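note to self: dont lose this again. the chain is below, predicted strucutre after it. 510 aa total, dont forget to put it in the shared folder this time
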Amino acid sequence: MDGRAKLRTAAAGVASVALGAGVGELAAAWVAPGSSPIGAIGDAAIDLSPAWAKETAIAVFGTADKLTLVIGIGVVLLAIAAGLGIAEARFPRTGALSCAALGLIGVAAAVSRADAEGLAWMPSMIAGAVAALTIGPLARRGRAPVTATSGTPDAVTRRRFFAWAGATALVGVAVAATGALLQTGSRAAIAARRALRLPAPARTAPPIPAGADLDVPGLAPLVTPSATFYRVDTALIVPQVDPAHWSLRVHGLVDHEVVLGWNELLALPLQESYTTLACVSNPVGGGLIGNARWLGYPIRELLARASPHSDADMVLSRSADGFTASTPLEILTDSRDAILAVAMNGAPLPPEHGFPVRMVVPGLYGYVSATKWVVDLDVTRFDRATAYWTEQGWAPRGPIKLESRIDVPRVGQTVPSGDRMIAGVAWQQHIGVSKVEVSVDDGAWQEAELAPAISADTWVQWRLPWHAASGEHAIRCRATNRAGQLQTAREASPVPDGATGWPRITVHVA
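---
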């Protein structure tokens, strides 16, 4: 084949795989919403990736890591599809068999998910079959017969091929989009969330103290809107859990096994509280942190019903998609507002933040406490069970470290000279912050104005007036907690139990 014929047969492969993937997405919408071919492969890729690869993805792409993975899978799939089209033209049935093999890879990924449905195998099987049946005829059209005079395909033949290939690809895109719309709008979980009317809390959150929000432009809001709250988890496909079929099982080293249903949970005396959550992957000065108002039932009350054994020291929580987290039992049974949350900022939990039920535990990083879509609490011991991230080298316990951050001015920002404001946030949940200090150009530490905190379980805002002179300036900050401990200057990466160091930014004053 000449170069143009290779291009046409490559296009035949891309169009065939696009049609197969699109039909697979549509099939998933009808028979197994959590088992779309690309999503299943993506979830498997996340689970099989080494810890350093996941950490690198979060550090580089932040909360866009899943979108980046989907785009990457799509690019690789298109490259493979192009090669299969060329192979099919040269060696008939090679591309078709390879398409079927891709479908089987998707089947294996879909059925291995913890929340796999009975027909989870079907979407990928259909995708592979459609691509396999399409690639042969389309590749043969791409390698069109030549004319006797010029030795090349005539213009009519080329136009017909590109019409067929284009139509095939467009149909694939259209049915994929239809499948995505069906999966977004027609699931029982989405309908249930929209219809849910939250019960009135038996205990409302304390009012936000006057002056807690310093109202500095560019400073993180005191309460993070749900739409911009950070999301870091291992679920490429957001689990869609129908509350009507949700239940939570408490078992293990307990005297009484407890099973709690959705209606039973909503009938319990729910409590409101403000809690700041933080990801252990957050670098010094990073944005993987947010503060919200949560509504839920105290986990300690549920555990009290189960009566844990005296030798138990850990609760292994499990989500609907198979993720696990190890939480010290003593943290879940003390007086803090560790809850089974059903609402966030006055509305039912968004699906990506754990609807219908998630755990919220002040004072611990999310990887050992903030299990979303939670369905199981196994009361056990640290020496008997390990959780998802512990198995990949992270510490089994994850207490929040004392941290601070500079929000204003922004990193690398150019600001006008004159009277300006340096501002940021500081936190150490369940201990609290008593002081924040700022140093400009490695000068003396100046104590900033510290706003009143909502509680010891939330971050706190701070600010310091600054007369900015022209030139480049380096700004650092550090916090002191309510126990008198100073934030450590020792720089450490997030692995294995959270980053440390003093935040430092450079700004240019014009």
